[in-house]
Amino acid sequence: MTREEFLGFCRTIGGAALDQPFDEDFSSWVARHENNRKWFALLMEHDGRDIVNLKCDPQEADFLRSVYKGVVPAYHMNKTHWNTVYLDSDVPNEEIERMTMSSFRLTESKPRRKKEK
User: pLDDT per residue over 13-33, tens digit each?
Assistant: First the structure.
């Protein structure tokens, strides 16, 4: 998957917004929820390769790391809950899209529970 394909996919997700929040860094993009502003994907360049950090259930994160060479513990983020995916690796486009949607769901706002009196 290319950087442009990944950004294009993120643009199709209802309730998602893309921005470049880092001063003087014009290659990194953050995909976030419009309502709560939480990130669900961070696209950046590392060692000349495009990578994306995606939130993941810890058990699934370990499984994905064992299946794909292109999935590793997250670069610059919590390595238990986030994976880094190399876009030019052995991870199929459909799997990158599935992982992105899973990250989107994991970072959604949770409904507030009413306190009992």
Answer: 999 999 998 888 888 999 999
Strand order in the sheet with 39-46: 16-19, 29-33, 39-46, 49-55, 82-86, 71-73
- Predicted TM-score (pTM) of the model is 0.89
Q: Report which DSSP code applies to 5.
A: H
SS3 state at 20: coil
CATH code for the domain in which residue 89 is found: 3.90.1150.30
Q: Is residue 30 part of a domain?
A: yes
* 105-115 pLDDT tens trace: 999 987 777 66
Structural domains in the chain (count):
1
Q: Which domain holds residue 26?
A: 3-106
Q: For residues 19 and 86, what is the distance between their CA atoms, to the nearest angstrom? A: 20
Question: Sign of the CA dihedral 38, 10, 83, 75?
Answer: negative
Instruction: Kindly report the number of other CB atoms within 10 A of residue 91's CB atom.
Output: 19
> How many other β-carbons are positioned within 10 Å of the β-carbon of residue 18?
14
